[in-house]
Amino acid sequence: MEIPRIPLGDWIETGLSWLTTEYSAVTRGISRITQTGIDGLNDALMWLPDWALLLIIAGLCWKMASPRLAIGAVLGLGLIWNLDLWDPMIETLTLVVIATLVAVVIALPVGIAAALSDRLYRLIMPVLDFMQTMPAFVYLIPAIPFFGIGSVSAIFATVIFSMPPAIRFTTLGIRQVPVELIEAADAYGATRGQKLVKVQLPLSLPTVMAGINQTIMLALSMVVIAAMIGADGLGSEVWRAIQRLRPGDGFEAGIAVVILAMLLDRLTQSLRKERKQ
């Protein structure tokens, strides 16, 4: 007896076709708004002279982290400039910043709601497991029919891919607040909103910042992969080097990605340490 094959792929294709047809006006509007944001931030960063932006980043590293990180930022960004990868680095930074902002804006309310509702928590955890175990390349597939080839599709795929850690850590941080403090707030007559704003969120902020840090790192990795669907930046340099069999150019772009990742990681970690203090 032969068991018939479940046409799961056909169902998914039918669903995507229906969504792209029925909500094409919505996706076009989202695409225009997102592209405007990408162009605006990218133009603003490009407008600054290279040396000025380098000094601004070094100053942020000095103030928020340490003089050692500031010196490392000058050396690392100076190397990127010397390799003629400054403009691709700016394009990558633009995509990471916008994708991270969108992901955090969505993730924080969802994480808070999941922390306060056991039913939502049980519902959303399997969804997050599914999102985090799905191969990154798969997220590029639905982005193309919705938004076409380019940076907007990269933002869409990056947001979906990088959002789960922010939701998980937000939920974890709020749920780890000591019960005694919650009971003390109740004893003083605090409302549910007051407990959230004045007790749970401040105490969970270091954990939330750890989730945002992971979101930034995942966004950077996905933006590089999204070069396969037309995203600009350092990922496109790596993809071009692969296509042309030029390993040297690929390693140069990869080193630039590592430098950018280290700077973003150290800066967000310094924010987390400040919150702990």
From TrEMBL:
This is Proline/glycine betaine ABC transporter permease. It is found in: Cell membrane. Coiled coil: none annotated. The keyword Manganese does not apply. GO terms for molecular function: amine transmembrane transporter activity; carnitine transmembrane transporter activity. Its main location: membrane. GO terms for biological process: choline transport; glycine betaine transport. GO terms for cellular component: ATP-binding cassette (ABC) transporter complex. It comes from Halomonas sp. RT37. The chain crosses the membrane at residues 51-81, 93-116, 136-161, 208-231. Residues 89-268 form the ABC transmembrane type-1 domain. Belongs to the binding-protein-dependent transport system permease family. Keywords: Cell membrane, Membrane, Transmembrane, Transmembrane helix, Transport. Pfam families: BPD_transp_1 (PF00528). The keyword Transmembrane applies. It is a multi-pass membrane protein.
